[in-house]
Amino acid sequence: MYQKIEACRENRKCEFSHSAVIDALVVNPRLRLKDLAQMFGYSEGWLSVVLSSDTFRVALRQRKIEVLDPTMLATLEDHYKALAMRSVAILQEKLKGPAEGISDDLALKAAALGASMFKPTMAAPPVPVESSIDRLADRLIALQQGFRGTTLTTGETVDVTPA
Fold first, then answer.
1. Burial class (CB in 10 A: 0-12, 13-18, 19+), 24
2. Which single residue of 34, 55, 60, 87 has CA 20 to 30 Å from 5?
């Protein structure tokens, strides 16, 4: 992969594919759109459209999963879940000891934590994912509705036959 990207830099033109662009970005994440456009021989505008397409973004996300460390992909929520699980494990170990060695404060906090886990929570409504196709369809409908109020006029017919 690296030799192929280096050869592209030397020739200043590569065969375009989503995976080739993704490989170039993996090798050098700081590549600008201008550099990519020169590398693949396309305009910046065209390449910008390709890079913002759903297909490219899905392929890039899959490649990031392959390349990146899972801890870098983990969300803040994932980190808090791991922290909570570890804290509960430590708390369970401390509570396994003799009752005389457990402070009242620790016992009360453990009880409050356990009770809070059983509170019913409202599930967040799912956020609809809007694709570029949906946005395009909305724009086409709006454009069509803009023409509905107009009428086509018929022009006059002029006879141009020689007399």
1. buried
2. 55
